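Colleagues,

For the teaching module next term, I've prepared a clean inverse folding example: a structure given as tokens, and then the sequence designed for it. I'd like students to try predicting residues themselves before seeing the answer, so please don't circulate the second half yet.
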């Protein structure tokens, strides 16, 4: 497999890496998460104005740089390496993916705002009884004249406290678990003052991200809030989630590269019994095993990236194989890094603890390894 980058892609990678190394401080980002707004809006604006990465994967007709899946991999791996908490996947991957496929004047306008760094989106899809099945939808939308009325509950809506546009899945027809009859609606929100009919319970997740549970009670939205064809949103939703799954898998590669490098450096410095622990053969073997897990993850992500534009079944197989591989590797690399650091590995003082929490979250985000193995098996069953 030849996965050489073009000169333009190398410039994108190098420019983003240098920016994050110089201006994205782990200490400042954690302070923003825990005591501030939950993110750094000025960094997000720089992503748009100085780097252009919010449009790196979009065609030039949408104000983007004309990139694709490879650019997505480059950007998300770099963001993972720097442990960036700003909502790139929720907004740029899922948000623009759903909006662009839906089309229409309103969707196009929001995409332009995203590229300019002026809009944040959050997908409200999971429900209290749905698990990770995004087609298990009890939230309803019914037409009332020139408006739609939404009723239902969504849980663990990542980036909802930061978003000014919610993309909500709701059932306009069909039974609860049907893939037919699912529609998408865009709901404009004020971060500080949600509209009447929307109750929001915000919280910080274990990996220092912002999320919320949402309750819609006779929430009225205009007719043009419907994205795409009524009842026909499932294929677009499934594709957007697959793209997001690959994005977080690529992010995990960046995280694991950083974790492995820090662990090797620590093993060269930490002394026990009068010598560095890196000189012990058993620990050398452990770090080699970590390295192998990282390299297997890289290969799996490459395969998924190359198949993002393939037919739905082929795409799903590659995505699930990558996520299952990442789920196993994230646990192995993260847990062993913490163990090799000793008690310091779980403190707030060292970066390793923060990276471990994000790897643990990614292990389950957009489906666990077990869920993706089951999906792979179902797709390949005779």
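(Answer key — instructors only)
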């Amino acid at each position: 497999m030849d996965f050489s980058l073009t000169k333009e892609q190398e410039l994108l990678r190098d420019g983003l890496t240098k920016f994050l190394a110089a201006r994205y401080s782990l200490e400042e980002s954690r302070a923003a998460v825990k005591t501030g707004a939950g993110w750094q809006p000025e960094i997000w604006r720089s992503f748009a104005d100085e780097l252009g990465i919010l449009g790196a994967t979009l065609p030039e007709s949408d104000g983007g740089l004309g990139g694709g899946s490879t650019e997505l991999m480059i950007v998300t791996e770099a963001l993972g390496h720097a442990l960036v908490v700003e909502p790139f996947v929720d907004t740029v991957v899922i948000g623009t993916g759903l909006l662009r496929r839906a089309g229409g004047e309103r969707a196009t306008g929001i995409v332009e705002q995203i590229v300019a760094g002026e809009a944040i989106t959050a997908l409200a899809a999971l429900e209290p009884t749905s698990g990770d099945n995004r087609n298990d939808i009890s939230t309803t939308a019914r037409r009332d004249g020139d408006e739609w009325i939404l009723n239902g509950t969504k849980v663990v809506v990542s980036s909802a406290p930061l978003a000014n546009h919610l993309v909500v899945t709701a059932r306009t027809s069909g039974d609860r678990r049907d893939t037919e009859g699912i529609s998408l609606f865009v709901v404009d929100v004020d971060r500080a003052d949600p509209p009447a009919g929307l109750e929001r319970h915000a919280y910080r997740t274990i990996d220092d991200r912002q999320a919320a549970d949402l309750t819609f009670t006779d929430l009225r939205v205009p007719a043009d809030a419907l994205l795409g064809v009524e009842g026909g949103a499932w294929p677009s939703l499934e594709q957007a989630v697959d793209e997001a799954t690959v994005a977080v898998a690529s992010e995990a590669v960046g995280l694991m590269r950083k974790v492995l490098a820090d662990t090797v450096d620590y093993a060269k410095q930490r002394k026990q019994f009068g010598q560095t622990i890196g000189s012990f053969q058993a620990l050398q073997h452990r770090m080699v095993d970590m390295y192998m897990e990282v390299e297997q993850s890289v290969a799996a992500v490459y395969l998924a990236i190359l198949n993002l534009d393939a037919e739905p079944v082929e795409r799903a197989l590659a995505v699930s194989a990558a996520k299952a591989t990442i789920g196993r590797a994230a646990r192995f690399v993260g847990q062993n890094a913490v163990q090799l650091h000793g008690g310091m590995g779980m403190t707030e003082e060292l970066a390793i603890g923060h990276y471990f929490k994000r790897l643990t979250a990614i292990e389950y985000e957009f489906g666990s390894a077990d869920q993706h193995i089951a999906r792979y098996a179902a797709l390949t069953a005779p």
